[in-house]
Amino acid sequence: MNLALWIAAGLLAAVALAGGISKTFVPKEKLAAHSGGEWTGHASVVFVKTLGVLELLAAVGLILPAVLDIAPFMVPVTAVCWILLMVGAMITHGRFGQPKLVMLNLVYLLLAAFIAWGRFVLEPFTG
């Protein structure tokens, strides 16, 4: 189970890193021009960049606390925060009539729920 939780955290961290880099460093207009990014055209630059930074922090929070053994309880806390972020993403994509992206966000949400449940209950990090 420990290996499965590490793999799940690694996958989710990669997703968060990719999303965070794009929202933080790609201009909003360019994001809005791509399929799935239309919502950014209706959001402020500050909001999009803030989401990007939160995703970068999630990528870090899913891996580094456990690897460095510094506050490893932050891994499941980060997973819970990701769940909340995905609820918002699902609502946003639903409003834009993007059911495929809603389902993709649901997969990410379930992956985060698995990590949170696994690290809070099944295989918590003990110090």
TrEMBL record:
For membrane topology, the record states:
Multi-pass membrane protein
Main subcellular localization, coarse class? membrane
Give TM segment ranges.
Answer: 42-64, 71-91, 103-122
Signal peptide feature range: none
> What phylogenetic lineage does the species belong to?
Bacteria, Bacillati, Actinomycetota, Actinomycetes, Micromonosporales
Q: Where in the cell is it found?
A: Membrane
| Entry protein name | DoxX-like family protein
Alphabetically sorted, this entry's keywords are: Membrane, Transmembrane, Transmembrane helix
Keyword Iron-sulfur in record: no
Q: Which GO terms describe its cellular component?
A: membrane
A Pfam family cross-referenced in the UniProt record is: DoxX_2
Q: Does the keyword Membrane apply?
A: yes
